[in-house]
Amino acid sequence: QSAEKEGYDHYMMKEIHEQPETFRRVMTGRLHEDAVTFKEFTLTDEQIQNWQHIDIVACGTAYHSGLVGKSILEETLQLPVNVEVASEFRYRNPRLDAHSLVILISQSGETADTLEALREAKQRGATTIAITNVVGSAISREADQVLYLWAGPEISVASTKAYTAMLIALYLLAFYLGDRAGRFNLADHKDLLEALAKLPDQAESLLTEAKKEEIRQHSQALIDADHLFYIGRGSDWAVAQEGALKIKEISYIHAEAYAAGELKHGTLALVTDGTPFVAIALQEKTFEKTLSNVNEVVARKGRVLCLLKEGHDKISDDLDKRIFIPDCLDMVAPILAAIPLQLLAYYTAEARGCDIDQPRNLAKSVTVE
Ligand code: G6P
């Protein structure tokens, strides 16, 4: 078995390291200099132009990828996008018809609630697109269109490379559909395509021994925590939710993600001397606002580890605990941000002696409803 882990102690670390290669694979043949193509799709322009609303339905980590995908799809298709966990969506009598697009996201393609949501959507006349990693899975067989992640097998229960591949897949899909709908001219947005093309190399730079050691050291401050808060705004909040899930799954620390602007409406009451926070401050638009939330926590003696973009170091000199991701367009920051948060969860779990690849009570694929 250790041979299968290629020298890593756990599948999770192996899969974290596979991300640069995974990024290349999900983009190969799809991302071009001034276009995105999906040869596997059989959608007509008329079908695409006919959609009036979009639902993204998924569970767990896949759901978190949908939260990031929402804003980019809204922008490129100029349609309202609802993101929902499958176990809620399928029981609430969703309003779907021939003007609906439902995107189902599932690494395994076998999650029972997501599969049932797909069946419900089809029955009501929606077009369905599945984003999945497993060829021949139930969801891939039943969806109208399938976008494969080509991330290779993911063994660790906590999802890593499939999650970041889902994000890239959603961006590619948003560009592709927006362009075909005539609402987003990709030729005018070459910078976005270039930003995607740079991701594999940027991901490599987050996986050097030095970078990993830096993050391992930050994890040492978390190992005795009972509670941990992740905060951010906009797509940083989506990143925070996945970061909190990751550490909860494998280290068993109670972690909660909060929209930074909501802190004052409740969570701030829990901040006392030493309460640990991870703040995600990667989006230019909300950077200053998130920093002021960080200061509110610091003023109450909370401890904050900030995830920032290189180049933002000057503004945040007063914050002593910082992790940097490479400078990149705000749009792609969630993809790069995932990597240090995965490592933070990994090293925290390792120091706590947890079973990283097989966390208690959890399964890789949940095939019961
Ligand atoms: C389980 C796994 C999670 C995963 C979720 C959805 O809870 O432990 O890691 O995110 O199922 O799985 P799917 O295969 O549908 O993406």
TrEMBL record:
Keywords of the record: Aminotransferase, Cytoplasm, Glutamine amidotransferase, Repeat, Transferase
Documented EC number(s): 2.6.1.16
Gene Ontology MF terms in the entry: glutamine-fructose-6-phosphate transaminase (isomerizing) activity
Enzymatic reactions: D-fructose 6-phosphate + L-glutamine = D-glucosamine 6-phosphate + L-glutamate
Location within or outside the cell: Cytoplasm
The keyword Cytoplasm is assigned to this record: yes
Annotated catalytic residues: 364 (for fru-6p isomerization activity)
Chief localization: cytoplasm
Domain SIS: 44-183, 218-359
EC supergroup of this enzyme: transferase
Role played: Catalyzes the first step in hexosamine metabolism, converting fructose-6P into glucosamine-6P using glutamine as a nitrogen source.
Quaternary structure annotation from Swiss-Prot or TrEMBL: Homodimer.
Protein's UniProt name: Glutamine--fructose-6-phosphate aminotransferase [isomerizing]
Section covered of the full-length record: 240 to 608 of 608
